Amino acid sequence: MDFEYSCFISYRQADSDLMGKFIDQLVSALKSEINVLLSNMPIYRDREMISGGTFYNDELEQALCKSVCMIVVYTPTYFHEKDTFCAREFKIMEQLECHRLEQFKDHKFCNRGLIIPLILRGMNSFPQKIKRRRHCYDFSRFTLSENPLKRHKRYCKIIKKIAEYIFDRHQELISNIACPCDACSAYHLPKDIEIRNWLKQFIPPPQLFPGR
Fold first, then answer.
1. To the nearest whole number, what is the mean pLDDT of the chain?
2. Please, is 38 exposed, middle or buried when counting C-beta atoms within 10 Å of its C-beta (0-12, 13-18, 19+)?
3. Of the spans 91-95, 104-108, 192-196, which averages the highest pLDDT?
């Protein structure tokens, strides 16, 4: 079974209107570039207002597994100890990434990850553990501009670069792994207690007042 989506967009829906507008522009700009390279592979963006059990469904797990890469649109509340849906998406994609990269016989491909972080807000709060391992793109300056994303030459170059990166990973994966999506049924979104323990490495403990 081959991939169905070029990428999965992971972001915190409840952040603000700014996030919704940015995601609309990101998907539009990225789609234009990806269609040139992977014409039959759409971008997966979950548009539902997630609540309760409707989030943890087979469709979402399948979409993550059938995506070549995951784009993380980061804001300071992305890794949230109470609203953990973004952390669950990140964790399952990290597991898929590890499984797929381990199957490469040529180790030169193993340092090319499948998770692409875009920092919309909160560069200083972005977890150092992830920053040290993965290259991330700073989109924070874009939020201060009134111009649409497609009119920013700087960001258009980044979008093109991301699309080319996704295309290259797709070619490497299908060339080295016979059926990259055959094990999708084995991957499930982590349970609440699992993800909360995992999140401790990214969320600093609360600061106490002096003398307390």
1. 84
2. buried
3. 91-95
Task: Pick 5-199's CATH classification: 3.30.160, 1.50.10, 2.20.28, 3.40.50.
Answer: 3.40.50
Of 174, 190, 156, the C-alpha closest to 68 is 174
> Which pLDDT tens digit goes with each residue over 169-185?
999 999 888 888 888 88
Contacts 24+ apart (CB under 8 A), 184-189: 184/1, 184/61, 184/62, 184/65, 184/66, 187/61, 187/64, 187/65, 187/92, 187/95, 187/96, 188/61, 188/92, 189/55, 189/56, 189/60, 189/61, 189/88, 189/89, 189/91, 189/92
- Structural tokens at position 124: 């200083």
Note whether 203 and 81 are within 8 A (CB). Answer: yes
pTM for this prediction: 0.88
58-65 and 85-101 are packed helices; what angle lies between their axes, rounded to 10 degrees?
A: 40
**3-state SS, residue 165:** helix
* CA 27 vs CA 20, 30, 63, 109, 149: distances in Å: 11, 5, 16, 27, 10
